[in-house]
Task: structure prediction
Amino acid sequence: MDVGFIGLGRMGRAMAANLARAGHTVRAWNRSPEAARGIEGVTPVASAAEAFAGEAVVTMLADDAALEAVIVAGGLLDQPERPGLHIGMSTISVTLARQLAAVHERAGVPYISAPVFGRPDVAEAGKLNIVAAGAAAQIDRAGPLLDAMGTKTWRFGEDPTRANAVKLAGNFMLISAIEAMAEACALTEGHDVPGADFLDLMTNTLFASPVYKGYGASIAQNRYEPPGFILKLGAKDVRLALQAAEGAGVPMPFASVLRDGLIEAISHGDGDKDLAALARVSARRAGR
Result:
């Protein structure tokens, strides 16, 4: 397929490369032009408008503001040449997802939400789990592209906002797991049991899963750079989860606890570190 790709951070670069590796023609644009260079099989283009064309376009921008600025305020839906399908893979608010679905419908451009679970190394391996929602026929149409970037596509109905709600709920659970490990380590260390030994036990028995094992190893080793999932983006996701919860009348008291911990981490200079650096908040509070 002839594919445009907009947003080439660490995740986007890997995803665009996998599309090219699978034989698709990929034209890519990024707000920082240097990020579009040096990706094997991917052709950099000079503007978002050039990328927003062809059989499909994938967007993988950092947040609501970036996506809205490029797609909506940038007037891409008003240009004569537009893509046959827009696949929105960014982690964004449910509110923006709803707005995007409406403006795409008015413009006559099919839109599906397809955010992903996985860190950059998972993206490089083409093993992302992709959460897709939108018209079934459009998800089918996107299938070859999604298959090139992920190991499985999980479908959640025809309303695109459902995929974004699932993504935010999943990230809430992930960050909750880090907070639980952080507090538990502070407890064991308060009784002279090394946190690394405790996490070795837990992540190889009761909690032998990728999130606990991966982030647990980072906490045990005090290894927070280079970041896989940047802490300040995790803070953004918790904020969006709280907004989505409020909009649906759903109390999420622990999400408020996470938000405050993440704000504290950012205020201590850890915003650009890996999300596992949230553990430093519990250690600091315990005087350790």
Summary: The two ends are 54 Å apart (CA to CA).
